[in-house]
Amino acid sequence: PSAAPVVQYTWGKIYNAKAYNACSGMPRLGHAGVLTEAQMRDVMALIAAQRANRTIRRVVQTLATAVFLPI
User: Fold this and answer.
1) Residue 35: what are its φ and ψ, rounded to 5°?
2) Interhelix angle 37-66/4-15, nearest 10 degrees
3) Which entry of 3, 19, 41, 43 is 20 to 30 Å from 30 by CA?
4) Pick from 2, 4, 70: which is nearest to 44 by CA?
């Protein structure tokens, strides 16, 4: 599946969370000028890295279970 819709949603949510949910407690980080565009890119990279780490951990756990290795 394409990651483009997820990336667009995440960027939009960081930029202006209220556009997705008017009652959101998350601040409008980009819209209000709290974060610069470069800082928002850094946040996106951090989110992507965290997601990749979870995926890698899941794969390792699955492989370890398949060969009966304790983690």
Assistant:
1) -115, 145
2) 130
3) 3
4) 4
Token code pair at residue 19: 């556009």
Which amino acid does the sequence have at 21? Answer: N
pLDDT, tens only, 25-59: 888 999 999 999 999 999 888 888 888 888 777 77
- Give just the sign of the alpha carbon dihedral 49, 7, 13, 21: negative
Measured CA to CA, the distance from residue 15 to residue 9 in angstroms comes to: 10
Q: Structure pTM?
A: 0.66
Of 1, 49, 61, 26, give the one whose Cα is nearest residue 12.
Answer: 26
Give dist(CA 71, CA 60) in Å, integer.
9
Strand, coil or helix: 35: coil
